[in-house]
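Narrative of activities, Objective 1.

The group set out to show that a structural description can be obtained from nothing but a protein's sequence at a throughput compatible with the screening campaign. Below is one input-output pair from the validation batch, recorded exactly as produced.
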Amino acid sequence: MGRRRSTIIALIGVAVVAGGCGTKPSDATSPGDPIVVRLYGSDANMTNSLKDKLKDSPGLLSGMTGTAPLQRVPETFKERLRGVDPTLADYGYAAEAYDAVLIAGLAAESARTSDPTTVARFMVGATNSGTVCDSAAACLPLARAGKDFAYRGQSMRRSGFTDNGEPSSASYGTLHFDRTNVINDNLTEYVGAGDESLASTAAAPPFPPPLSSSNPARKKPPALKVGGLMPHTGRLAYRSAPRFAGARLAVQDLNAAGGVLDQPVEWVDGDDGTDATVAAATVDRFVGLGVQVIIGASSSSVTKAVIPKIAAAGRILVSPSSTSDELSTVADNGLFFRTAPPDTLQARALADVIMRGGARRVTIVAREDAYGLGLQKNVKADLVTAGMAETAVELISYPTTAEDFGGIAARVRDNNPDGVLILGYDETAQIVKALADRNVVGSA
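Output recorded for this entry:
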């Protein structure tokens, strides 16, 4: 059945531009005159991984500012993630991936089964009402005892799921690149977004009797298998290491706390390839292996493409990073969930950052997929709501297969903006280079 769209109300106040503040739009008329702009990004490109693609362009990202679903990650959690993957360069969506696995494991324990369609009925309830707990060690005993609990872990700290199975509120970070093309953590600001009152108030299903007491002869359910449908290859592979680390750490923590259904949780590795065809083949493999819970996909477009297959197969899909607001209403038979907040929240956070920077004319460059076009539309709407003239917001998009961004850069220059928001993946490096080649330079 279809999913009811949840109305998200951001708590971020959007600033109205004060007259005379900020950088004035360039008066350049000659192709040789520089246009100085403020560069902005979002969760898919505000990452230290970009520096590897700009080794010949030191400082090109200096001053670029953007947003991402982010909370203060305790150093102890970072250390534990590095224990899983010592090569981690950042921690983007690691907390969301960790929580995706934890919630699924807790829901299975509450349901006394690893049957996906039954477990799905306990997913929302695992994050709302009852005793607040924040770890596998604290929550699993409550689930085993058939007690109500509300998981508040690494990313789900503020409130639980909506009826749609997505965060009702979230924390965002405002990130800043320094002169070495690295995000300066000392400048990161955190702000809450969303509406905690939108968390589901529906009663959780009745807890079945514990396995040991309901019927000693009862056959033990199959072990819970969790599959990783995230990119080892493709355009988003450069961002996936923290997500894999977070998911695998959660499996370790569940097993250290005694496992789920008196058995170790099994991790099954997979690749979504940042491609719908690759992801579909991986889902088929997971189904054949008896995987009940799938973590992914990473991109909104791939997630949207595989949801029908997931629904038909009767498997649970939990995405830690797919943020397109289109996913709030996708028909999924109640089997799709996400720990990443919808982009209706990030759009308002981005609009706030742009308006506070004093921009008067903004060009939004977006990749042509559910993520890029959806966020582009929402940011423009929020900028206009905040007081920017609709004619001052220009929209440019590019195919996901694009490799030459010279034409895009030329159009940006023709728009003569003082702010440029790029909604892309690792190709952001090529877009920024193309802008610089046409003398559209970022303001440090």
